[in-house]
Amino acid sequence: MLIKEVIEEKKKDIAFAEAYDHEGRKLETAVALYHAREEAGLTQAELAQKAHTTQSTIARIERGDNVSFDNLMILPEH
């Protein structure tokens, strides 16, 4: 059996299908951020500075790790 067939069979389970779709959206977001950052000619550290976050947060997003939007909020400058 091909992996595609296994996934399609598993997706009959609603909880699995929702989790699978959620992970797919995270991956799409991670890839989009990576490509946008590269296209802008920015390093992770440069993007992090502009986004008022850390380089490690950008790296975690680009890996598709779970990152809270709290980590991405733009804080008011003092």
UniProtKB/TrEMBL annotation:
Annotated GO MF terms: DNA binding
UniProt cross-references to PROSITE patterns, sorted A to Z: HTH_CROC1
HTH cro/C1-type domain: residues covered: 33-75
Protein origin, superkingdom: Bacteria
Pfam family, one: HTH_3
Annotated InterPro entries: Cro/C1-type_HTH (IPR001387), Lambda_DNA-bd_dom_sf (IPR010982)
Record protein name field: HTH cro/C1-type domain-containing protein
